[in-house]
Amino acid sequence: MGFLKLQGCSALIYFCLLFSVYEAGHVTIKRSIDPSASYPLITDDRLPKDVIPQSYDIHLEPKIEENAFSGIIKMNLTWKSDSKKISIHAHFNLDINDKKIVLRKINTNNSDSQLSENISVVRGSRFPKKTIYIIYLKEAIKEGSECILEIPFEGSIWESGEGLFKGSYSNWTYLATYLRPNNARRLFPCFDEPGFKVPFTVSITRPSHLFTIFNTPLNRTINHSTLKDYVIDYFETTPPMSAFTFGFVTANLKKLQNEIKLDEDTSIQTEPVLSLWGFEDNANQFKEIHQKVIIVHKAIQRYFNVSLPLSKIDVVVIPELQVVRPVDNWGLLLFKESDLTQNRYYDIAQELIYQWIGSWVTPEWWTDAHLNKALASFLAADIVFKIDGGIEFNGKYPMTTLYSIYYEFSKRYPHSRITAMKQETISYKLELVIRMLNFTLGKDSFQRGLRTFIEEHQYKTFVGNDLWSALTKQATMHGTLNSQYHVDDIVDSWFAIHRLPVVTVRRDYEKRTAAVQQKLYLRERPHDVPEQEKMLWWIPIVLNRQDALNFSNCTPYVWMERSREMTIDNMPPSDQFIIVNQEEIGPFPVNYDERNWQMLSKFLQTETGRTLVPTYTRSKLLHDAWNLAYAGDLSFATALNMTLFMKFERNHIVWNPVFTFIDQIGRHIDMPEVHKRFEEYVLILLTPLYEDLGAETEGEDNWKTDLRSLTKRFLCGAGYRPCIEEAKNAYSVWQHLPDPNLENPVPNHYICPIFKWGSMEEFQFGIERVLQFPKSRKQNERTYLLKTLAGCPTQPEKIIRLLEQSTLEENSNFTENDQFLIYSSLTATSSGHYTLLKFLSGNWTTIREKLINNTNLWDHLIGSATGFFLTQKGYNMVHQLYEEHAGEFGSAQHIIEKSLRNIKEEVLWSEENLPVIETWLNNFLSKNSSNSS
């Protein structure tokens, strides 16, 4: 159950940033930010356990026109110890008149359990700065007593999607609830904690022309006694549930009848009726969605092998639902129309899984919500694979998620500023650890353990160890886990350290042994993270060997039990490679000795090798090699050798990370002559792929469209002649329009090549289009144009022209935001930041006088002009600027000093790696013709 769900760049930090630059296809998996990101916002208002609820009887009376509601709740309470007060949750915005509170004791000696005397209520008051309301009694009530507490209340209907809120669609108004994570207290006084699970008996007033759907089916409807054209709906009593799973929607809804007949599962006797609801004018559009809901529900039910204790699940589609994520009440799901029209199973599966694990089986507290989310996300992905083989994911699960956390956790200081991003990646990591357990414990053991877990925690709450214990017991019983191991120990090592390991396997080919080491995985330099030697994980060493390849066997050869190093025996002969952590079973990269890498590279260049090694494993080997080289743990010659098989590779999953590598390494080649050779290499690498992909055809798969688009963009950037000619022709059309400011007919992917490879006349035409851009057009078009003007050219004269007009001219139409964007974009290429520094040095006095009092822009300029050099030459230039203008940097003094420190680290990397890259490229280009350019 997602206590609080916020949509992130379905957070996919690494790839989303890259794909946004090159406008690749859509990332299929949409993610929600882990609820623990909101810990500072979720108060730890825990209630004492001296008085606990047994059931609620609630009547709600929304007044839509007045944006208000009133109601009354009757709580059946039991005293676990003597007490003179009752503590409940009630939001500050919920009005309670303590003089109207009534407490009656239940006469338990009477067989009819009739109410006896009233208990005097002295007063009610709020706990300071907490959403706790305390009712003080005249005398203590004894342990074991039962009472009915009756509280009238009033509140406001919210415009935003929390508590009880109001929205509109077309000419219709609707009411809906969103009570997660702890917003039930906004709607009625209650015990608003996950652990308090009780039955709810509910009645709700509504206008007679609208319809109300609640967690449970409608029992009966009567006319309101005082409000004309209003009725009261009485609903069936709910199963025991937490307050945040309470929900209803009141709207002009139409039910799509359950007409779909699918194969019945005779192993499950009962199941809820699934109905789809929509507004009158759009309900008939969703029959396909209804079928998907039923298919997904049956798949989940088969997986868990248990039906929910619900008679129905209603799925309501609201076009403009005012929440970020779907609302998953127990038995009632609310989706924004756009969430369902994207034709996906994943979102439906995730929300339905919360019906089992979230509503029926519930996390004990907010701190356990990340586990619930990670488990639901993994299971939803697993269900999608079972339904369509993973077609929906387009090959991006789990690789996109995995690569994003590889990138983030390998920084010296991950998530240093963004708490939400930290919680999101931590949740993703736990999801991948759960996936690792599914493989290493065995899918059957994992599934049976999960079934046992659900059976033991029905209507209850859980903490993480409850799940791990169930999995341990089942895996031990099946023999897939050593009886001395416990899943809790394995998971704790991954969750306690917000980092990731790298495993290095170095073979002794004579002794046929291998030394296996683990250490903290770091890409960002310097590798000086404190106490990294203490960071150790439980790591499954799943091993495949060339003489006995079997990628379906995921049983660990051995577990590294938080040990720094170990030796394993019985390695294959010296002419046979090994592969560790196939298919990214665990979230960690793997390094090998040089000889093993060479054998892998040669094997993948054979048709047999590419056939025998699965897609995800080929992708992993390539991704690991490049990232390890980038981190300084592997020779770049070895990493580049691992790309040689790409000449024959056509699978988009394997190609996806290649574009990231080209971009990153291209930015790190801070030597023009080497960069030119690198672009020739890119042309040779990508041209056969692009030509094989051919022209776009109607109805082709999304992956093919996305791959063609990415390939063409990188080819254009590397100087692919057909692309440059196409770009020039398209640009010429724009240049000859009667009024070129009215529109830009040039496709975006041709803009950058023109500014990089085109003439100065073409470049100046682009500047003029920015300066004369009409306000009537979309401003993001102007932003894109300006970013490419600054980020694409490699000729200094073009960059200087842009800087002169944007920075030096007194009457420039360039805004301060434009200047920020230009300086940032210039850091994308070595030519850009070299030219920016020379421009700053040559016009120091003028620029300083213009910007020194604008500290934000001045600091940004100094950081952009000095912070991206990687070689000794660049260091010398920055240091010369630092000495020549000592004492003149003002607020940017610390920025240039930090730049100098960072460049020193990068110089070491460049001196070690750029000569290796240059030598490899020279050898490669001498053997391969670049005629394809």
Q: Quick one: biggest sheet? A: 8 strands, mixed
Structural class: alpha+beta
CATH class of the largest domain: Mainly Beta
Strand order of the largest sheet: 7-6-10-4-3-13-16-15
User: Low-confidence runs (pLDDT<50, min 5 residues)?
Assistant: 1-41
Total discrete domains: 4
> What percent of residues adopt helix (DSSP H or I)?
40-55%
Q: What shape does the CA trace take? A: globular
Instruction: Characterize the quaternary organization of these chains.
Output: single chain
The CATH topology name of the largest domain reads: Immunoglobulin-like
The CATH H-level superfamily of the largest domain is tricorn interacting facor f3 domain
DSSP helical segment count: 28
- CATH architecture label of the largest domain: Sandwich
| Gap between N and C termini | 53 Å
Q: Average pLDDT across residues?
A: 89
Rg calc = 32 Å
Beta-strand percentage range: 15-25%
Topology, number of strands: 32
